[in-house]
Amino acid sequence: MLRILTSVAVLIGFIAHPVKSQFMELPYSFVEEMPTFKGGMEAMYKFIADHLVYPDSARINGIEGKVFAQFVVDIDSLAKEVKIVRGIGGGCNEEVLRIFELMNAQKSWIPGRHENKPVPVKFTLPFKFELKDEVETKSTMPVPGKDIP
Q: Of 1, 34, 60, 61, which alpha carbon lies 20 to 30 A from 128's?
């Protein structure tokens, strides 16, 4: 009988262990120390500006606007559960997801802390896609041989 009880206890331990390890702490919305991008907000904006590519499909079709991405900065410095909560199409949504992949490749985030321990924190971040007028600027400098009478 003792052998059976021991076997059952061990079996329950094996079954319960994976369930406990898969249970993830729910993300916070606000904590004592919010997560930050390594180098600060300015560094994050520079990273996005340096890596964001305006999709050809959006450019050709004149698609502009903001893509809103929601994500969780986890305790391992990664942006997880990234999803587009408001997109504009034309490949812009996919481009935002690609930016998060690049951020994760560099572990770009410093996790948030609550009660002096790292915790997951949920964020929403807008990405602005704006077409600039590509107007040719003509030089006002005289061209030798042409502008001289």
A: 34
Residue 51 Cα distances to 36, 43, 44, angstroms: 19, 12, 11
Within 10 Å of residue 144's Cβ, how many Cβ atoms?
7
Structural domains of the chain, with CATH? 26-129 (3.30.2420)
| Cα 102 to Cα 88: distance, rounded to the nearest angstrom | 21
Q: How many residues does the chain have?
A: 149
Distance CA(128)–CA(65), nearest Å, equals: 6
Task: Tell me the whole-structure pTM to 2 decimals.
Answer: 0.71
What is the per-residue pLDDT across 99-140, written as a single tens digit (0 to 9) for each?
999 999 999 999 999 999 999 999 999 999 999 864 333 333
- The per-residue pLDDT for range 7-20, each reduced to its tens digit, is 444 444 444 433 33
Burial (0-12, 13-18, 19+ Cβ within 10 Å), 123: middle
